[in-house]
């Protein structure tokens, strides 16, 4: 029942998603009327590589505008990448245009829970219509079978069945979030991308939704890519974490280690910025200023250069590569070995 | 669903009595259009020169015209033709303009350019003059009046549909639909179109009044329906000659009916919006 006849019958721990050198650039404006000339490009996602194992939860953190959302749209195949590869199981998906992927057999296996559940449910659809939509389109389920599957998904997500014929504006924020999750798990995906699933919710509701997500991961054996601003949630929920800055990955590693002992100065700044009960903050690590422009960034300079508390001239002339460290960690900083 | 819509409609009407008046008038006009010919006390085409230009009386409620035809019967019978032309042209422009606007807003690029230029070209003309030109060029038959009325309303529908679509093109539910396996055309017709329906229905109701006026206007200047067919515009045109000599009723009654019809559809627009918009449903 779980999974959709998995094309590569992978065991837990085997790689489900392998993203390599993935980039997405948006032209800022069209080339001049007379042709030629350089078109400025926004480097939204730049040379990003990471893997996701079956059953794993990967956190994706970084400030607004760092390319998280674009990366999410790339791996859910809503947008076509400019270059790079996205291997899903045994299959290369990057070359497949997003339009063609809409009706692909693997579409049902990659699903997403959107940031704002209220906005992501068609206001003219009832909750049942919304949950039924992917089942009908991707699985060809109809009639009584469809009703049963919708109710099953709703029950899994703790959505009372009597709410199924309500419109989104008649539901509370938490109920909408449950509809959004029920819709995403209805096709029993292998990979579920969670794009700040609790950002629009009250704190009290956030907890119940996060608990639901943890339960669902166990029951349905899904892998999560979990995007969030909330580092505490990422620390609790994720096995590994990817930290992004201005379109590039600056640090990857097991969540517990990354947060306890960050290697990259940007991660240190992020961790230091988490509010703490004792009120102590490391002012030396406070990130000042704004990120550099993502438009045609200097390929030979660290993106964090200028804002980095430990940056040197070398950072302005040599882009640090993502290097491997002990314990399965990676960081893109020339000075990652040095104690903070 | 339908019973809740009905309940909501009742709520809207009780909240805003003007909508109730508009609805009552609308029902009245629709009944007149359907039953008019069988209810008319006289043959609308039968002339009786013995009784020409008689003022309103118990026998002839709206009086008689220059060749003794009963004006009340003619006004009543004309309802079907006037409303029919307007309804047909609104339906036509709703299909053409609505779809063009949806596609233009959703796909952007050359589709948007093409549709935008066509709409601009139409708007470059004084609209009534354009309608005159179309009917004059194609011949004054009822289908051509319908077509001309639809064409001059085309830019309005395109702009409304396009603006509403652009707002929703990037909406979360559009991405959600793609994730659920819908292709462009499915997203457009299945997801975006239902969401712009309320505003399009309001638009239809508002242009309905304008379409009636336009059809009557064409007939008034002799480019629409031809005499002796009973039609409000022609009747006003024929009656206009007699106002100076004191026979006011010949033009007044068809004119007042025309005005009431336009008024009714304009009022109805606001009420319809309240009824079809689910966000106002409580």
UniProtKB/TrEMBL annotation, chain A:
Matching entries from SMART domains are given as: AAA (SM00382)
UniProt organism field: Falsiroseomonas stagni DSM 19981
A single Gene Ontology CC annotation of this entry is: plasma membrane
Does Nucleotide-binding count among this protein's keywords? yes
The name this protein carries in UniProt is Oligopeptide/dipeptide ABC transporter, ATP-binding protein, C-terminal domain-containing protein
Tell me, which GO biological process terms does this entry list? Answer: peptide transport; transmembrane transport
The protein's matches in PROSITE patterns, at most eight in alphabetical order, are given as: ABC_TRANSPORTER_1 (PS00211), ABC_TRANSPORTER_2 (PS50893)
- Per the annotation, which location comes first and is thus the protein's main one? membrane
**Entry keyword set:** ATP-binding, Nucleotide-binding, Transport
Show the InterPro entries listed in the entry. AAA+_ATPase, ABC_transp_ATP-bind, ABC_transporter-like_ATP-bd, ABC_transporter-like_CS, Oligopep_ABC_C, P-loop_NTPase
Its taxonomic path starts at: Bacteria, Pseudomonadati, Pseudomonadota, Alphaproteobacteria, Acetobacterales
UniProtKB/TrEMBL annotation, chain B:
Q: How does it sit in the membrane?
A: Multi-pass membrane protein
InterPro entries found in the cross-reference section: BP-dependent_transpt_permease (IPR050366), MetI-like (IPR000515), MetI-like_sf (IPR035906), OppC_N (IPR025966)
The UniProt transmembrane annotation reads 21-40, 83-110, 122-139, 145-161, 207-228, 248-269
User: Pfam families from the xrefs?
Assistant: BPD_transp_1, OppC_N
Give UniProt keywords alphabetically. Cell membrane, Membrane, Peptide transport, Protein transport, Transmembrane, Transmembrane helix, Transport
A Gene Ontology biological process noted in the UniProt record is:
protein transport
Query: Which subcellular locations apply to this protein?
Result: Cell membrane
Please state every residue range assigned to the domain named ABC transmembrane type-1: 79-269
**Cellular component terms (Gene Ontology):** plasma membrane
Instruction: Point out the coiled-coil segments of this chain.
Output: none
Q: Which family does it belong to?
A: Belongs to the binding-protein-dependent transport system permease family.
Protein name (database record):
Peptide/nickel transport system permease protein
């Amino acid at each position: 029942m779980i999974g959709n006849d998995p094309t590569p019958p992978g065991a837990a721990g085997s790689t489900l998603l392998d993203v390599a050198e993935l980039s997405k650039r948006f032209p800022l404006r069209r080339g001049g009327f007379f042709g030629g000339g350089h078109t400025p490009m926004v480097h939204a996602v730049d040379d990003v590589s990471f893997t996701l194992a079956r059953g794993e939860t990967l956190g994706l953190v970084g400030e607004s505008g760092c390319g998280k959302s674009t990366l999410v749209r790339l791996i859910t195949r809503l947008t076509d990448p400019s270059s790079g590869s996205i291997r899903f199981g045994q299959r290369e998906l990057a070359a497949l245009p997003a339009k063609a992927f809409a009706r692909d057999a693997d579409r049902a296996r990659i699903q997403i829970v959107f940031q704002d559940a209220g906005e992501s449910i068609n206001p003219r659809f009832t909750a049942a219509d919304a949950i039924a939509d992917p089942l009908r389109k991707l699985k060809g389920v109809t009639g009584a079978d469809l009703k049963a599957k919708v109710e099953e998904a709703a029950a899994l997500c703790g959505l009372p069945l009597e709410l199924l014929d309500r419109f989104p504006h008649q539901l509370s924020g938490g109920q909408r979030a449950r509809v959004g999750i029920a819709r995403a798990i209805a096709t029993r995906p292998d990979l579920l991308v969670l794009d700040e699933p609790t950002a629009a919710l009250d704190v009290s509701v956030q907890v119940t939704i996060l608990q639901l997500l943890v339960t669902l991961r166990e029951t349905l054996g899904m892998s999560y890519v979990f995007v969030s601003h909330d580092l505490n949630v990422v620390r609790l929920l994720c096995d590994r974490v990817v930290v992004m800055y201005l379109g590039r990955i600056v640090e990857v590693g097991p969540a517990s280690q990354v947060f306890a002992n960050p290697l990259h100065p940007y991660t240190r700044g992020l961790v230091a910025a988490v509010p703490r009960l004792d009120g102590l903050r490391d002012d030396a690590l406070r990130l000042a200023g704004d990120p550099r422009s993502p438009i045609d960034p200097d390929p030979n300079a660290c993106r964090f250069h200028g804002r980095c508390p430990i940056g040197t001239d070398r950072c302005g002339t040599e882009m640090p590569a993502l290097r491997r460290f002990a314990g399965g960690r990676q960081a893109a900083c020339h000075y990652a070995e040095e104690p903070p | 669903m339908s019973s809740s819509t009905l309940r909501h409609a009742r709520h809207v009407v009780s909240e805003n009595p003007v909508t109730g008046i508009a609805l009552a008038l609308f029902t009245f006009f629709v009944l007149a259009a359907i039953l008019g010919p069988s209810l008319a006390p006289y043959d609308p085409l039968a002339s009786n020169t013995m009784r020409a230009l008689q003022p309103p009386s118990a026998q002839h409620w709206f009086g008689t015209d220059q060749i003794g035809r009963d004006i009340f019967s003619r006004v009543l019978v004309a309802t079907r033709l006037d409303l029919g032309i307007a309804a047909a042209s609104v339906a036509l422009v709703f299909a053409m303009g609505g779809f063009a606007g949806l596609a233009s807003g959703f796909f952007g690029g050359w589709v948007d350019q093409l549709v935008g230029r066509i709409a601009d070209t139409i708007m470059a003309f004084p609209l009534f003059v354009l309608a005159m030109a179309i009917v004059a060029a194609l011949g004054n038959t009822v289908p051509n009046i319908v077509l001309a009325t639809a064409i001059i309303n085309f830019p309005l529908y395109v702009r409304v549909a396009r603006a509403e679509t652009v707002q929703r093109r990037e909406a979360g539910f559009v991405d959600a639909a793609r994730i659920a396996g819908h292709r462009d055309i499915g997203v457009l017709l299945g997801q975006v179109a239902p969401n712009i329906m309320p505003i399009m229905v309001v638009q239809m109701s508002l242009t309905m009044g304008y379409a009636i006026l336009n059809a009557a206007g064409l007939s008034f200047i002799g480019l629409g329906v031809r005499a002796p067919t009973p039609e409000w515009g022609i009747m006003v045109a024929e009656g206009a000659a007699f106002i100076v000599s004191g026979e006011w009723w010949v033009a007044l009654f068809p004119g007042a009916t025309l005005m009431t019809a336009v008024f009714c559809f304009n009022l109805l627009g606001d009420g319809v919006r309240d009824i079809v918009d689910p966000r106002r449903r409580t």
